[in-house]
Amino acid sequence: MGSDLVVISLGVVAGAVSGLFGVGGGVLFVPTLSLIVGMSELHAQATSLLAIIPVAVVGTWRERTTGRVDWTDIVVIGLASITTAVLGSLLADVAPQRVLRVGFALILIWTALRMVRGVRRRAAHAPAIDSTRTGD
């Protein structure tokens, strides 16, 4: 029952984070499922890939009313994702678990560094705030 509660909590947190920030739950799913629940890296990644489908569908359905959904991009990205997910899963089946775990960690680190770099770049180009103004 303890791992069931962890998995339910993970779904709630990942759904909230996905909705708030537009990120895939894999950032949370894979480490939690492998390190806390005890799944193999391969099973954690496969579970994450399957769990993202309802999140993506709900997010797209919600955003479609705003006009921010580019259906051409969805088709192109979707087809490319399906193709490469099949190829990646075939490769993951033969890769050692350690390679999968280290590879996933490196992708997370690289993504975090790119995000920090982007935030710093935007902050450097943001207009200065005049703290002496009292309002209009």
Provide a descriptive summary of the structure in words:
The protein has 136 residues and is mainly α. It has one domain (2-124). The protein is 79% helix and 0% strand. It has helices spanning 2-21, 26-37, 41-63, 71-94, 97-125. α2 (26-37) runs antiparallel to α3 (41-63). The model has no long low-confidence stretch (mean pLDDT 83).
Proportion of residues in helical segments: over 70%
Q: How many beta-strand runs?
A: 0
Shape: globular
Quaternary class: single chain
In whole angstroms, how far apart are the ends? 58 Å
What structural class should be given to the helix and strand makeup? mainly alpha
- Determine the strand fraction and express it as a percent band: under 5%
- Total number of distinct structural domains: 1
**Could you spell the SSE succession in H and E letters?**
HHHHH
How many helices in DSSP terms?
A: 5
Radius of gyration: 19 Å
Uncertain regions spanning at least 5 consecutive residues: none
Query: What value does the average pLDDT take?
Result: 83
How would a textbook summarize the main sheet? none
